[in-house]
Amino acid sequence: MKILYLHRTQGKGVEGVHIREVIKAFMKMGHSVDLIGPAEINIDGNGGQQRDGIISQFFKYLSKCIPEICFELLEIAYNFLTTKRLNKLAKRNKYDFIYERYAIFSWAGVKFAKKNNTPIILELSYTSFTPILRKRSKLLRGLANKIDVRMFKDADALIVVSTYLKKHLVELGISDKKIIFLTNAADPVVFSPEVPGNTVRNEYGLQGKKIVGFVGGLNHVRGLDFLLDIVPQILVKEPDCRFLLIGDGQLRGHLETRIASMDLTGKVLFAGNIPHEKLPNYIASFDIAILPHTNNYGSPMKIFEYMAMAKPVIGPKLGPVEDAIAHENNGLLFEPMNKKEIMDSLILLLKDDKMRTCMGKNAREKVINKYTWTKHAASMIVFLKNLGKLDFNDEGDT
Fold first, then answer.
1. What's the N-to-C CA distance of the chain in angstroms?
2. Is residue 32 within a helix (H) or strand (E), and if so which, with residue range?
3. Which candidate among 40, 315, 324, 374 keeps its CA 20 to 30 Å from the CA of 140?
4. What is this structure's pTM?
5. Residues 225 and 110 occupy one common structural domain
6. Low-confidence ranges of the chain (pLDDT < 70)
């Protein structure tokens, strides 16, 4: 089949990984994929590299330097550029379906699909109704809400990454028959427990230590201040424990200041941003992977990469985490922002090597059986076929 993938992202971070891995999965199944978006994305190696195109650089600059209302008007204007590119492609190609990573104020893909009688599936990680990290203006919120609902109703199918989002769409009046729930996923070949972690342990002087690791943005959503609150008590009971934080963000300076003031320098370590293709070596150094906090609608991709590498995960009892982690099977869950429960979970796993190994094994098996990008891509195609939107008999390698 020939598939057209649409996005309006800078192609970096988790969003870039998701785009690359979905496209790679379709290609692995034997399909061809064309890509339209502001960022030029190479699909190669362990996830590929992203090159900033002129449009991507322009939007990146504007997103930081102009008022939000102005940026939102540019998001609206971007539809006309997308429509022009779609019409140009349509003169040369006939697509079996369009896959769009939906963004607020995006209507070009759905309108084009309807005009050309091409099935379109929208992938949603959030909507204009959810409290996303970026602060949107209030002036155009009503318009954004109306566009969302219209596009969701007009799309042939919708992918949601959490049970919360599925419930949210149904409450907006969207038929649950055209909604498929697919969390994020991982590549178990790249994120394998066979990857050695000794190099990272040696680099940070962590030989013989028990490492609690975190990968993600250093922002308010991730609960890193909450994690720091309990580190001194953990170290009293487990003095050989060390915390390795991978990522960057607006809280980096604040966290470093807190660590110094709490006399935790050398015990809580920052690795900074690490290219995605190098992450397996860092995760391999972990004994336990931790997610202190998250939102209730997204699907934390790192959970699946931890699981693929046979790492037990400790996370909050929130829908997106519970979608992947079964308490006392492949990880431990605690009540959100409950210091006693997260401390008890950490100490339990730090002390019990056998439990860590067993949970890690269960975690990897769950990824292989359920949470790979190829399985997700195959599920999308089967779903479209069952809706009567595709005339295609071979779903590929699942």
1. 16
2. strand 32-36
3. 40
4. 0.90
5. no
6. 44-65, 132-134, 392-398
- For residue 181, the model assigns a pLDDT of 96
Q: Do 209 and 104 fall into the same domain? A: no
Query: Do 334 and 303 reside in the same domain of the chain?
Result: yes
Helix ranges, the chain (H): 13-28, 54-65, 68-90, 108-115, 141-154, 163-171, 198-203, 224-237, 252-261, 279-283, 301-308, 319-322, 339-351, 353-370, 373-386
Q: Is 265 exposed, middle or buried (0-12, 13-18, 19+ CB in 10 A)?
A: exposed
| Cβ atoms of residues 303 and 321 within 8 Å | yes
Cβ of 190: how many Cβ atoms within 10 Å? 18
| Sole residue written with tokens 């590549």 | 187
> Pairing state of beta strands 97-101 and 2-6?
parallel
Query: Residue 269 to residues 201, 208, 217, 228, 243: CA-CA distances in angstroms?
Result: 12, 16, 15, 12, 6
Nearest to 192 by CA among 289, 310, 304: 310
Range of the domain at 35: 2-185+372-386
Separation CA 344–CA 330 (nearest Å): 16
Query: Would you report the helix, strand and coil content of the chain in percent, each value rounded to 5?
Result: 45, 15, 40
Instruction: Provide the token pair at 197.
Output: 């972690």
Q: What is the pLDDT of residue 139?
A: 87
- Residue type at position 51: R
- The tokens describing 102, both together, are 């939906």
Q: Which tokens in the block code for residue 186?
A: 């991982």
